[in-house]
Amino acid sequence: MRKKTGIAIAAGLLAAVAAPAQMHLIEGEKIRPHVKFLAHDLLEGRGVGQRGGRLAAQYIAAQFAAAGLRPGAPGGGWFQPVPLRVVEVAPGPSLSAEAGGKRLDWRWLDDFVGTSHRQQPQAEFDAEAVFVGHGITAPEYNWDDYAGVDVRGKVVVLFTNEPPSQDEKFFQGRALTYYGRWTYKYEEAARRGAVAALIIHTAPTASYGWQVVRANGRPQPQVKRRGDEPALAFAGWITEQAGAQLAALAGEKLEELLKAADTRGFRARPLGRVKIRGRMQFRVEEIETENVVGMVRGSDPKLAEEAVVFSAHWDHLGLGEPVNGDNIYNGALDNATGCAMLIEMARAWASMEPKPLRSAYFVAVTAEESGLLGSKYFADNPPVPAERIAAALNFDSYSPYGRVRDAVLTGAERTSFYTLVQSVARRHQLTLKPDPRPEAGGYYRSDHFSFARAGIPAFSVNMGNDYEGKPQGFAAEIGKKTAAHYHQPTDEYSEDWDFSGLEQFARFGFALGVEIANLEKIPARVDAR
After folding, report:
1. Domains assigned to the chain
2. How far apart are CA 304 and CA 360, in angstroms?
3. In terms of CB atoms within 10 Å, which end of the chain has fewer, N or C?
4. Mean pLDDT score of the chain, rounded to an integer?
């Protein structure tokens, strides 16, 4: 046993020595053509269930094969089928509110947006409106927005996010927890038996503008629902202006409702005598999309049954509402960049001799933009048991404006190998920085979270914003530019982009993966809350 262990460690050391040489095969100008192709208009925004999305998946599989990977999907092959239902709102949806003889009629996309989780051809409701604050039930924080109220068959109205705090023992202080995510709001409302849920959008509580929410008017891929599973007839958002109108109809002020929602001791209450009525038709289609999975087997006979996972989502928003005549949501930064880096990391990994001890899976996941659906499906149905996955490193949305001096690896501190992460960062001359906007809940908004929910140590490898050789204010300017293009048709490839930062972080992620793959013991599981 000792002899075998010694051989394994020696092989791991050789692989670690080989890694720096192979790491330099990863070059920015090799990453560029993948981004250019995946973000091209011909791929029509890589929509799930759309022609461009299928083409993107085929391209990535072909690149994996050319890189020397083996097919790695469960059961064999390059593709792991992910069964989904696409729910599309038919023209003319109606949403209105009434009280005291007065009526509000809201406009689709301009005032409200949403979908149905019941996955039926139509949804109708005419029900009492109940204000439930942030819509949170969190016993560990002694907080229950649903205490003392029965919302069965009613429409719950709420804010996203959670009560603000500087106390890390109360909703983790500034950092958003899963309780603050819009996905949780809908899940809890459905568990409580509500017929519909309307989230009042404000930029501060959501951390993004209405233009991002408005994009949810496109067809929505969803996981297939079981017949006995509680689901909302309508899961929607309304604008801040529509929220203010609704509050006024109930004799309230929107700012006072938010203040009440943020206050300990909040109690849910009816919104005056307001009733909210919805009439919607839906086109429901069953589709099969796919995760693209390639693998490189590890060099140790025993540890090769364990794995390190590298992931990036290939999907974007596809064809959608035209903006200035452009209806292709190309998704160049989000996430052609991450997929391109994944391909080149896979190529470098496959060329290593000897291979690292553990196997490596390179996974281009689908349906991230619809709620991390592809990564969740992979984490729930992995090619090796989840307890044998040492770590999952995710790559999502990179800034093609040069190298940086810092990295943001939110969630890495939750792992048992954080000191290793720090060591690799130092070798790459990167300073690890905390999430600059923890209140935005980035930890819960990218595919690594699906792995973490399965107990797998996981985090995204993100660039910081301390750019090398750039003038003061450059990072702020780029931040504004990126935010303006986020989930818009203007997220397009540019020939003047500088891919040196993508090269830098693909090499960093690659080196980090090699170190984890060669650990003597598999890391401890994590609790992702």
Report:
1. 18-77+297-517 (3.40.630.10), 87-284 (3.50.30.30)
2. 9
3. N
4. 94
